[in-house]
Amino acid sequence: MRATTTWTRRCAWIVRTRACGRNEAIARAMNAKTVAERLKETSTAVILGSGSATRRAILSGMNIEYVIEKPDIDEKAIRFDDPEVLVRALASAKATAVREKLAERGEGARRLLITCDQVVVHRGIIREKPTSASEAREFIRGYGLDPPSTVGSTMVTDLSSGKSASAVDVNTVVFDEIPDDVVNAIVDEGECMFCAGGLMVEHPLLQPYLKRIEGSMDGVMGLDAQTVERLLNEFV
């Protein structure tokens, strides 16, 4: 999810610390190299098909070098009632769009493309980016009454072979009741308008009301690091 400039660095540091520690622990336990090290050794380039600041922070926190190619698709044209089907379809459509953009570029290195999508499900309803400030207020206020869940899809595509692997992660966020002044302050900043469901779990104003996350913080923020590592491991 997108973060404001004033606290993106803090958020990125937290993500980087968690991801690095987890990756190093896994590598030590397996007496193996991290996926970032194997990517470098095999000269495998990584492309992130997203402009999200927090997704960039999460991937950087895994010590993975990458370039960005933003997909150009009409997300509203892709509709499914099942949130898992929807996010898989959107991640796949983004992969196709980026592949078409890169088709004419003859870069020698092998390339792996990471595309993602996420929606928020609240009270059984799929919520994407708010369309108005009043809708954003309604969304955020409701999260303090009933827990929202994030449903995210991550797809890794080998651009040389066309082979892909994908996975869906679901995380539930439990809040205490969120005061109206906090809701209004978050909406007035405007950044929540760029987030699925207007949900910015990493926002400092929400921290006092965050009880627990059933899942992972990075998954809620738009890119689950363990899922990314597992999918990349299928290719390197």
TrEMBL record:
GO molecular function: nucleoside triphosphate diphosphatase activity
The UniProt record lists the keyword Hydrolase: yes
Source organism, top-level taxon: Eukaryota
Keywords: Hydrolase
Protein name listed in UniProt: Septum formation protein MAF-like protein
Species the sequence originates in: Ostreococcus lucimarinus (strain CCE9901)
Keyword Transferase attached: no
Short name of one Pfam family: Maf
